[in-house]
Known about the structure:
By secondary structure, the protein is α+β, with helices and mostly antiparallel strands. The chain has 6 helices and 12 strands. The chain has a 6-stranded mixed sheet, with helices on one face. Strands 5-6-7-8-10-9 form a 6-stranded mixed sheet, with no helix packed on it.
Amino acid sequence: MRLLSWNIHKGIGGVDRRYALERIVTVVQHYHPDVLLLQEVDHGVPRSRHDHQAQKLADQMNFSHVAFGPNVTLKTGCYGNAILSHYPMASKENLDLTLPLKKARGALIVDMQVPVNGHQLRLHVANLHLGLSGLERRWQIKKLLQSKRISSLDRRSRLVIAGDMNDWMGVLSEGRLADEGFACATGTGKRALRTFPAWSPAGALDKVFLRGPVRGVHSMTSRLALARSASDHLPVILDLELKSGSATEVLRD
């Protein structure tokens, strides 16, 4: 299966500051993802024509399953994270990751069933947008891992944690996530995929972490010229292999 994660900046171009959601659609459709994780998705906000972007994108790209997790409430409307999927999502939770006195942040967590070799395998996915300070990010990762939804999973569960980590120094790959058995599938150190700013990427802010019987086969960022103008981040694209393991891992953890 193919996963694409992208901070779409509300569909507003990072250079021209023009709202053009169709640019997001064109870039995404070029890569044919099965699961789409989006951050900074508007819902009923004047700057984006009051569009309900998660549903509008799903309709235009034929994604049958949609989840939206609002994080930041505005005078009119809100914005947050969204997951669009070709696979059924059995449950959804929007976990508040807001550190007091800091900007509202969250993690949208879903379970989905993915068909592999005649079986339906369960995959847990957390789509998040972390804070700007290192202390804040460490606190947010700790809260995510200690949440009931995530802490109830053992290391045999297929778990993806992805999104805009705002992790300029790449320290998340070596901290609590590594201690809990996660590996960064989008590269570390000099091999990390750089995604920000889109027009001249210098920082590997957008990452995907994996744990359990799920493996990253190939990862890349978009090289499309349109992707460099559609948002202030580039999308990351990751091909995954889900392993069925023993019979007890089918339809359950």
